[in-house]
Amino acid sequence: MIEKIDIEDLKEISLKAGKAIMQIYNKDFSIDYKDDKSPLTEADLKSNEIISTNLQKLYPTIPIMSEENKQVSYDIRKNWEYYFCVDPIDGTKEFIKKNDEFTINIALIYKNRPILGVVYAPALNELYWADGKNAYKNGKKLPLKTNKNIKKNLIVVASKSHISRETQNFIDNIDSKEIEQLSKGSSLKLCMVAAGKADIYPRLAPTMEWDTAAADAIVRCSGKMTYQYENNEPVVYNKENLLNPWFIVR
Fold this sequence. Notes:
This protein is α+β, with helices and mostly antiparallel strands. The protein has helices at 7-25, 42-58, 74-77, 92-97, 165-172, 188-195, 209-221, and strands at residues 31-33, 39-41, 64-66, 82-90, 103-110, 113-121, 126-130, 135-137, 140-141, 153-159, 178-184, 201-203, 226-228, 247-249. Helices cover 30% and strands 27% of the residues. A 7-stranded mixed sheet has the order 3-4-5-6-7-8-9, with helices on both faces.
C-alpha cells in the first residue's frame, strides 16, 4: 500500500489547504467554540474540506480520521490496516493569535505507527515531509544538524500555549550543564527535534493522535523517536481512546 501512495500528492494537498487558509488568516475571521471549549475557525473547516475531498478522490479505499470529521467507532476502525490521520490546522490558538506557528498535518498510519507524513506551516513557508525512509524540510534531508554533547548543552522545546507544571518540572530536572528552553506552537516542536534545532521535546500534558501523527512520521524518518513517558515505548496510534499518553521526543 505505501508504494501506491505518492508523497507528492500529500504535499500538494497540504499546499492547496495552506493557500486557502492563508486567505482567511490575512483577514478578519469569526471564532466558534467546540463542546470541549477548544476554538474553531472557518479556516479549520475549509482546510478539512480540501484535505478530505482530495484524499477521497485520490485514495478512495483508505479511511480518513480527521479532528474535524465525525469519529468512527473503535469497533470499525480497529480493523483498519492503513488510514490517513489529519489535523486540518494544528495550533488553532496560534492561528487566532496570528503568530504564524500553526500547521497542516497529514499522516498515513500503518496499523499503529505513522509511516508517511506532511507538516506544512504556510505562514512560515516551511514544508516538512517523511516518505517512509527519510525526512525533509523544504527539500533538505533531516536532521540538519546533530548535538554531539547533550550533557554540556541541551536545547529543549516546549509548548507555547499549553506548557504544564509537570513538563516544566521535567525540564528543570534534566541532567545537562546548560539548558536552553525554547517555546513553539503546534507540531513544529516535533519537527524541530527531527531537524536537530532542538534536542528534546517533553509533552507531559494532553494531546490527541492527530496533533502528533504527521510530525511523528517525520521524527521517526529522521532517526529520532517519540517515546511514551511512562514506559519508554514508542507512541502508538488508532487506540480506543484517541488521547495520546504523555510523551518525550528525542
